[in-house]
Amino acid sequence: MAFIDQKHIPATGNVAIDAAHMRIAGEVNQLYVDWQIGGDLEQFRSRLVSMVEEVERHFRLETLIAKGAGIPNWESHAKEHDRIISVFRTILMHFKKAPAESMMSFFDAMSNLIYEHEILEDYYLRAFLSDTSPIARGEDFIAWQDELLTGNTQIDHEHQSMVDLLNALYDSVAKDESNEYLQNRLKVIKRLTHDHFAHEEEVMRQRQDPDYSLHKDAHQALIDALDEMIALSATGGPLGSRLILMKNLRHWFIDHVVHLDRPAERRLQAQKQSS
């Protein structure tokens, strides 16, 4: 079994970025196999150095593409790249003193890079880098996947309902439906989203979650984005503007679930186990 299952790495829609993801994963898998067999430690260190340099080149390319495409939050994404490279460089610094531990740390860090950064962080790039729309490819605007599960059955069910609604809305926007039709859809989504947020916030308030205020502010940001969509539909804004707003909504949804909802649910489960 491969150390990294390349089938689980989703495409961003950019040929260069997707090829780099697969190439890096393949090199990590080969290095892992060779390490299991054993060999010269200095050779392994040399391969680690080359691999970190490869990741750095990939990050520079990814940042250049993201910036050029006008992707929101590309700067914070680039800062995360710097943090990851810093972790790798620290591992390399300690290699001569503790080669075995360094190799284990490297594989752990690389696993985090592939499964947490490339799969979860880079997922939203797909909305902006794909050459064709999801509908043109016969795909959903937001593909429901295990990475979006929080572990709370009711919250997950509500999230799935939101995904269905956003997918239907994107379909309507892409088909350039009438302004009245879009407004009605948006108002339904806003009402259901508001109810969902109220439920989430009440759960967090009751358990005195430390991120309650952050979560509440993030919820308001999406409500504001929906209001902007409603206003744009009322004035008959251009299709391109509506599609950009939809892509921002998708980025917000995925980012919010992965970085706020999932950690919040993990904290709750940890509290239950410790009590």
What's the layout of helices and strands?
Elements: H1 15-37, H2 41-68, H3 74-93, H4 99-121, H5 126-129, H6 153-174, H7 179-206, H8 212-234, H9 239-274
What integer is the average pLDDT? 79
Measured by DSSP, the beta-strand proportion falls in under 5%
At the first level of CATH, the class of the largest domain is Mainly Alpha
Global geometry: globular
Which residues sit in consecutive blocks of at least 5 with pLDDT less than 50? none
Number of domains: 2
CATH superfamily of the largest domain, by name, is Hemerythrin-like
The radius of gyration computed from the alpha-carbon positions, rounded to a whole number of angstroms, is 21 Å
SS content category: mainly alpha
Structure summary, number of beta strands? 0
CATH architecture of the largest domain: Up-down Bundle
Per DSSP, the total helix count is 9
The CATH topology of the largest domain comes to: Four Helix Bundle (Hemerythrin (Met), subunit A)
Describe the main β-sheet briefly: none
Give helix and strand order, one letter per element, not per position.
HHHHHHHHH
Measured as a percent range, the helix fraction is: over 70%
Q: How many angstroms separate the termini?
A: 38 Å
